[in-house]
């Protein structure tokens, strides 16, 4: 393919940036050069579309400097007009420009990273700015096949047409008078779960602004692209889309606003469909997933139809005062994609926000009440304790005023807790972190959570020990110590969430991969205050105080109420040796101390001839030394020492013959002059060290085969007088274990590398005032070499 040419003085910097964004840049006309238009391999081929047509789309992007925009393109270059493309180049498929892919936050979701992503959007908008705000052509198109990748879309007899906003109405608006809670209406996709999540988002304006940046409009800045942000595995990613929307007979067919001139909701749905691959993926989903994607919070779901009422009330009583969004809904098993108004005034498939709890005393006795708010503003409860019910007459005016019966938010109402538990089927909790609480004024009346976040991974042979039923290895999982101070606290509310890494982009080929998430969970152990790490002996003798149900979901969550004490949280996969990245989040409502269990890198046991067994020191040690003095020169090279160790192996501890590599490594421990040899006087000390290390290994070599599980490496190192950090241990497993098996030779070699690293570090630290390397860095460099 001939080299892509840049039109009329576009800078090289611009070309590089556009190539990084995976955009097609003005490919030479295939009719003149026999070339095929560029196509994003991630997008469906135009030939796959059947029964659908586009309401005017571009074939390629025409890049021109600002000074010459509006002129005619050079000969041989494609123009942006779909009509010109189709008439002049009939033999060429209409390959739209590939839509922009996801841009991960450059700084883990910080505000600065959003600004940098915004700069990318503004830079791109300037590049493709059009001569007239509402008369330009499509630039960042998506194929018609993006609507459905497998099944035919609704109205397949009359194809869906992709139209721009100004082709749908005369004066389009991105957001009309602010995105209110009454904006969103369901379309033909039946994605009621997404509608519920979006409607909940409108009750928190700052959260909505984060997902739907308000600095977009159909004015002089309009360039045919829009951007939205979604939470994905701990980061906020930005999705950029073009402005075409699916329509049928000139009307939007999917999610849309009640105002026909407002388009933020429809564009948001399109961006969300792009995040998950196609519109078809939105036909099935869960409110919990959408709530997390839109808020970034920890989402916990309860089925009120099977849960004990007392437990439900305890959950409400604990969550309402805190920085947690509560969403209640009525989900019917039949017609679950329709909104039905029930006789009691409630509407199915609608998200009602729980905003308060109260207890009132009346002639009927004490009654617990629940306050709810309908984001749609219609569908209020008309049963007992509704606005005009007779139950309010039994209360004093003071109680009525306290409950804000007269003055309240529109769409808000009270109902008894018994009616709430009887009529609502689902309750979702969205626990919001302290940073989001600070940025959202609507939550400032609630008590904020304290948060701890850790990104880790399960690696086979290192820390993928499986659930508590695997007592031999479950203690090898990552461990997090939660300490709730005993002074002044009666209890502490704790939320623990484990999210495994997941992929949102889906095609027909990797549809099955989506369901290959590992069943994950976590266990919580109550431990003594002086315990630093769970051991195999401890988990064998003690039952965890709680173990979550294992599921293939991307997140597992539990809401605890814990008394003061020390606890160990152990995230795990149900089966051992399952590898995956995970995100652990722990929220507490009181002061607490949380840290990951780790060890220092140190050699805490010195091995020397003075600590040798008397028999070995006086008899065997002297005998070995005499043999060396009589038969070998004062210094031995690796080959000579290797030959000697093979001869004395059966007499001493060396059951298996050491390899030449191990012998060379052992010499390095005493070869301070880098001569490649070891003095005879140092050999007994080396033999003592090898004997001690070999004895430590034999404690875990139950089959006496010279092999053990790599999960035993940490305790074996401790027996050999060495402790290592989690990172160093992972490095040692990767370097010396094979298929989760650790041989005695590999174990001895790892100890040699550890001792060498310690000696090198202390040597450099002594000679240099400021050592640029840390001890862990030195160990990693030495062990992995």
From TrEMBL:
<dbReference type="GO" id="GO:0004198">
    <property type="term" value="F:calcium-dependent cysteine-type endopeptidase activity"/>
</dbReference>
<feature type="signal peptide">
    <location>
        <begin position="1"/>
        <end position="26"/>
    </location>
</feature>
<dbReference type="InterPro" id="IPR036213">
    <property type="entry name" value="Calpain_III_sf"/>
</dbReference>
<dbReference type="InterPro" id="IPR022683">
    <property type="entry name" value="Calpain_III"/>
</dbReference>
<dbReference type="InterPro" id="IPR038765">
    <property type="entry name" value="Papain-like_cys_pep_sf"/>
</dbReference>
<comment type="similarity">
    <text>Belongs to the peptidase C2 family.</text>
</comment>
<dbReference type="InterPro" id="IPR022682">
    <property type="entry name" value="Calpain_domain_III"/>
</dbReference>
<dbReference type="InterPro" id="IPR001300">
    <property type="entry name" value="Peptidase_C2_calpain_cat"/>
</dbReference>
<dbReference type="InterPro" id="IPR022684">
    <property type="entry name" value="Calpain_cysteine_protease"/>
</dbReference>
<dbReference type="GO" id="GO:0006508">
    <property type="term" value="P:proteolysis"/>
</dbReference>
<protein>
    <recommendedName>
        <fullName>Calpain catalytic domain-containing protein</fullName>
    </recommendedName>
</protein>
<feature type="active site">
    <location>
        <position position="350"/>
    </location>
</feature>
<keyword id="KW-0732">Signal</keyword>
<dbReference type="GO" id="GO:0005737">
    <property type="term" value="C:cytoplasm"/>
</dbReference>
<dbReference type="InterPro" id="IPR011992">
    <property type="entry name" value="EF-hand-dom_pair"/>
</dbReference>
<feature type="domain" description="Calpain catalytic">
    <location>
        <begin position="164"/>
        <end position="433"/>
    </location>
</feature>
<feature type="active site">
    <location>
        <position position="374"/>
    </location>
</feature>
<dbReference type="Pfam" id="PF01067">
    <property type="entry name" value="Calpain_III"/>
</dbReference>
<dbReference type="Pfam" id="PF00648">
    <property type="entry name" value="Peptidase_C2"/>
</dbReference>
